[in-house]
Design the sequence.
């Protein structure tokens, strides 16, 4: 009788969530605030003009202006194909990770038992451990959609490259029309790059979220480290200085 009562108690929602501690909640909120804040910083704040993505977009516009002035655009299609294949690779990898995480949900008991033996591993219930897997699963679902959309946008860009009218230097009106169309192509190509960059960032976020399986402190440290790496590469890397013509 006492055993039955204990089993019933273990199934109650309050008991299932008893290991979701205050520090777990703080770590989760910290992750959301930091990641959403970084996305705002790189996409919507005044700092957007200083990041590497903006510098690369300037180069895309230059590329498309040059493209509009040559009749043979095979090299442009080859470059775009390479970029598209990169997006397809990361989207496929995200699908594999999603499948692995979904399979791990069915074996969460064994995985939880193995991780609980690690040094500094937090003492959590299997239900909370499963929720952490679902959280990581959601991150990589977002990753897949970002790269899948970037892949499609690359295809749209290739179509627009083929439709770009050849610039005629002897006809100023025709040249302006070609230049405006090239700007549109660069904008679509920039959208593809923007979603691809967002997909890459979610890979980084997934790495940070993996620290939660050990304990929430590791989760917060990993989140801070990942954001620091992203920030440095976006604003202070050697590649940024070269592309933005600072050196």
Sequence:
């Amino acid at each position: 009788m006492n055993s039955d009562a204990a089993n019933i108690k273990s199934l109650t929602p309050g008991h299932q969530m008893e290991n979701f501690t205050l520090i777990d909640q703080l770590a989760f909120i910290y992750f959301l605030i930091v990641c959403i804040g970084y996305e705002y910083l790189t996409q919507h704040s005044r700092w957007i003009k200083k990041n590497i993505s903006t510098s690369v977009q300037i180069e895309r516009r230059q590329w498309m202006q040059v493209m509009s002035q040559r009749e043979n655009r095979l090299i442009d299609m080859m470059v775009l194909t390479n970029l598209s294949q990169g997006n397809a690779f990361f989207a496929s990898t995200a699908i594999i990770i999603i499948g692995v995480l979904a399979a791990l949900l069915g074996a969460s008991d064994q995985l939880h038992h193995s991780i609980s033996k690690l040094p500094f591993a937090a003492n959590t219930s299997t239900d909370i451990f499963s929720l952490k897997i679902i959280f990581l699963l959601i991150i990589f679902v977002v990753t897949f959609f970002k790269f899948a959309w970037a892949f499609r946008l690359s295809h749209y860009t290739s179509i627009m490259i083929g439709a770009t009218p050849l610039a005629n230097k002897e006809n100023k009106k025709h040249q302006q029309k070609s230049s405006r169309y090239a700007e549109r192509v660069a904008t679509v190509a920039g959208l593809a790059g923007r979603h691809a960059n967002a997909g890459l960032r979610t890979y980084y976020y997934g790495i940070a979220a993996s620290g939660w399986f050990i304990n929430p402190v590791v989760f917060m440290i990993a989140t801070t480290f990942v954001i620091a790496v992203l920030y440095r590469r976006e604003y202070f890397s050697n590649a940024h200085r070269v592309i933005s013509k600072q050196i």
